[in-house]
Specification:
By secondary structure, the chain is of the alpha/beta class. The chain has a single domain, classed as 3-Layer(aba) Sandwich (Cytidine Deaminase, domain 2), CATH 3.40.140.10. 26% of the residues lie in helices and 17% in strands. It has 5 helices and 5 strands, in the order αββαβαβαβα. Strand 4, helix 4 and strand 5 form a beta-alpha-beta unit. The longest helix has 13 residues. The two termini are 17 Å apart. It binds ligand LAUPNLSC. The site of the ligand O=c1ccn([C@H]2C[C@H](O)[C@@H](COP(=O)(O)O)O2)c(=O)[nH]1 has 14 residues, from helix 2. Its EC number is 3.5.4.12.
């Protein structure tokens, strides 16, 4: 999860930085990603959350952290791997996780539990038997500030 947090810090999304790290059954990191605009689109698209038209917001354009971790993978097959994500995956990312054969999702924060995208993702994971668990730092002295990507007090709210 520390690697996913570090990846999230690369994101230019001013509101929510997300990191993802795919790990093999032999505990090797095989893919890292963060939420970003697609290559060569960095300057052309807005980071706004709201606008008169959804087409003028960031949402239709962002390439999500999980997709980028999958695209960046260093192995042919990620079947049997687990994925560490700083944010509970949306339904589109859930589909990528399922289709790629990843069998476990470890998330840091479930920031949007009431969004349809999150609820659909949970249904997808439940139906496919993909195990999801919230990441728990091993102890308070852990040198990584896992929640720094979300700002203060996010840990308590979930
Ligand atoms: O599974 C997911 C869901 C979302 N993201 C990214 C997409 C956006 O850049 C942010 C969410 O922005 P908000 O301003 O918090 O709505 O998270 C992702 O990478 N993976």
């Amino acid at each position: 999860m520390a690697v996913a947090v570090l990846a999230a810090k690369q994101s230019r999304d001013p509101h929510t930085q997300v990191g993802a790290c795919i790990v093999s059954s032999e505990n090797r990191i095989v893919g890292i990603g963060y939420n970003k605009m697609p290559n060569d689109c960095t300057k052309a698209f807005p980071w706004d959350k709201e606008a008169a038209s959804r087409l003028d917001t960031k949402y239709p354009y962002i390439s999500h952290a999980e997709l980028n971790a999958f695209v960046n993978k260093t192995v042919v097959d990620v079947r049997g791997c687990r994925i560490y994500v700083t944010l509970f995956p949306c339904n589109e990312c859930a589909k990528i996780i399922i289709q790629s054969g990843i069998h476990e999702v470890i998330y840091l924060l479930d920031k949007y539990p009431d969004k349809d995208e999150t609820r659909a993702a949970k249904r997808l994971f439940e139906n496919t038997g993909i195990h999801c668990r919230k990441f728990k730092p091993k102890n308070e002295k852990d040198p990584v500030d896992f929640y720094s990507v979300f700002g203060a007090n996010q840990e308590q709210s979930n």
